[in-house]
Design goal:
Blueprint lengths: L4 H7 L25 H8 L14 H14 L3 E5 L2 H10 L7 E5 L4 H13 L3 E5 L5 H5 L6 E7 L11 H10 L4 E4 L4 H4 L9 E5 L13 E5 L13 H4 L10 H5 L3 H14 L5 H11 L2 H21 L3 E5 L9 H7 L7 E6 L2 H11 L4 E2 L9 E3 L11 H6 L7 E4 L5 H14 L2
Parallel strand pairs: 2-3, 2-4, 4-5, 5-6, 10-11
Antiparallel strand pairs: 1-7, 6-7, 8-9, 9-12, 11-12
Helix pairs in contact: 1-3, 3-12, 15-17
Length: 426
């Protein structure tokens, strides 16, 4: 039976049978027993499905991955140990030494560093483009060895709303998938597959888990990209894999080829495995995702409107505001809200921003975003501190930018805290 997304937050992924636990159990085991060596051998040869070692598959983790796949409308998903590993796996699953990636420049600083520095050292080149570039400028970034396009649906922390269809059209015109990090909107507010994206990633650490208890990531495949239309470009998915006795992923697993390859190759070899207990906590967060995201967005829009009128606020960007240059795209792709994150700057620049944050009482200064509690960060001196001023500006992060993640506390208390901190920081 097909359910709506609010119901899938609670019901998808795990259906207990008669006499089984109603709540998804924590399968806290590294290994799983079988009656014969032949059965175990079939698992290792990918001839049978089942659990044999938790680095590759675990019942708790797989159930939560299935729930996230249902929320995004995908055919399959895999959990990873962090959002960073999810983004790396999503790209490295189809790109290797000598290949190239086209990326939106409006990215989380850690992701920018992953692609521009670490993956470059692995021989994977990249071209960063302004997300507001023209279709012609975007098309010019592609090369014959381009394997993917990567972007964030709502960028962290610059809050640039991706023009999905522009990026999807360019990717598909050049025979590659569009990979979108959908962490900030979550599938409650945005479903990238409906706008042409092929693969979605998440830092489940953020809104999905929602309580700052555990780190995690997820990769979801739409199952729509036709890998076999480009046999030379995506040969590792199509050609026989000698490490699994010559199996072809696209031939054997059809729509599940991409996630299967990621699991049995990358997770096998790199081991960015989530703990079952972490998946259990993530599942609890997902059960209230549809309720929390709505409250986050309601509070954030009210706070943004208040900040917009404050005389000490130099500038503000929140896609829900009509004054935001991203408002039209937000209305198009995220009509029910974007997220609880606001970007703004105070008169007085970087120094004033630091004094303001130090004066907050309810909101906490933490290297985190998007949980139930209101928190704040100065990206230029923390998450993006490895970037030059030129790089900061290119990805939409000004030196005075304050990233405010509005929580689900009482709205009056949040605004009162901001008001007193702005006053003290003068």
């Amino acid at each position: 039976m097909s359910y709506k997304i609010n119901t899938n937050c609670i019901q998808a992924g795990y259906s207990p049978k008669n006499g089984e636990p109603r709540v998804l159990p924590i399968y806290q085991s590294t290994t799983f027993k079988y009656d014969s060596s032949a059965e175990m051998g079939d698992l290792f040869d990918l001839k049978a499905s089942g659990f044999f070692y938790s680095r590759l598959q675990n019942p708790t983790c797989d159930a939560v991955a299935a729930k996230i796949a249902a929320l995004e409308g995908g055919v399959a998903a895999v959990l990873t140990s962090s959002g960073q590993s999810a983004n790396f796996f999503a790209l490295f699953n189809i790109a290797g030494a000598g290949d190239h990636i086209v990326c939106s420049s409006a990215l989380y600083g850690g992701t920018f560093n992953l692609i521009s520095v670490t993956m470059k050292r692995m021989g994977i080149d990249s071209t960063f483009v302004d997300p507001e570039c023209s279709p012609e400028e975007l098309d010019a970034a592609f090369r014959p060895n381009t394997k993917a396009v990567f972007a964030e649906s709502l960028s962290n922390p610059s809050l640039c709303v991706l023009d999905f269809e522009k990026f999807a059209n360019a990717a598909h015109k050049n025979g590659v998938p569009l990979i979108v990090d959908n962490t900030f909107p979550t599938p409650i507010n945005c479903r990238p597959f409906e706008f042409g994206a092929d693969i979605v990633t998440h830092s489940t650490t953020k809104y999905m888990e929602g309580h700052a208890c555990t780190i995690g990531g997820a990769v979801v495949d739409s199952g729509k990209f036709k890998w076999t239309d480009y046999p030379e470009k995506f040969a590792p998915l199509i050609q026989p894999d000698e490490s699994y006795h010559g199996i072809s992923y696209t031939e054997s697993f059809k729509e599940g080829a991409y996630i299967t390859k990621m699991t049995v190759q990358l997770m096998r070899d790199l081991g960015c495995t989530p703990a079952p207990a972490s998946a259990f906590l993530l599942n609890h967060g997902l059960e209230t995702l549809h309720l929390r995201v709505k409250r986050h967005c309601e509070n954030a829009l009210a706070v943004a409107k208040w900040l917009e009128k404050h005389p000490d606020v130099k500038w503000i960007d929140y896609p829900g505001l009509e004054s935001s240059r991203h408002h039209a795209l937000a209305e198009r792709y995220m009509p029910n809200g974007t997220s609880g994150v606001i970007a703004f700057g105070l008169e007085g620049g970087r120094d004033r921003a630091m004094r303001f944050m130090d004066s907050l009482k309810l909101a906490a200064v933490v290297t985190h975003v998007a949980d139930a509690r209101t928190c704040v960060l100065h990206p230029a001196s923390t998450t993006h501190r490895q970037m030059t001023d030129e790089q900061l500006i290119s990805c939409g992060v000004s030196p005075d930018l304050i990233r405010l993640s509005v929580g689900i506390e009482d709205l009056d208390d949040i605004i009162s805290d901001l008001e007193q901190a702005i006053g003290v920081s003068k």
